[in-house]
């Protein structure tokens, strides 16, 4: 009886571990940066920093500006 219970417990544990979702890969992650303009020096630096960090982490970054 104890062996059957132990076997059932180990089987349930094995099944529960295989059902866990796999972590997302960096290539699957995307981000968006929306700034007010593309000409304001503050937003230009923000975009440059975000682009550099996204490239370092392997994240696909899309940038948009509300005004050109």
Give the SSE map.
Blueprint: H1 2-18, E1 30-37, H2 41-57, E2 60-67
Descriptive labels:
2 helices; 68 residues; alpha+beta; signal; Peripla_BP_I; single chain; rod-shaped; two-stranded parallel ribbon; Sugar ABC transporter
By DSSP, the count of extended strands is 2
- Succession of helices and strands: HEHE
Rounded to the nearest angstrom, the distance between the terminal CA atoms is 74 Å
**Helical stretch tally:** 2
From the helix content, strand content and strand pairing, which structural class follows?
Answer: alpha+beta
Unreliable residue runs: none
Shape: rod-shaped
Q: Calculate Rg over CA atoms.
A: 23 Å
The order of strands across the largest sheet is 1-2
Mean pLDDT equals: 79
Q: What is the helix content?
A: 40-55%
Strand content: 15-25%
Largest sheet entry: 2 strands, parallel
InterPro entries: Peripla_BP_I
Protein name: Sugar ABC transporter
Keywords: Signal
Signal peptide: 1-26
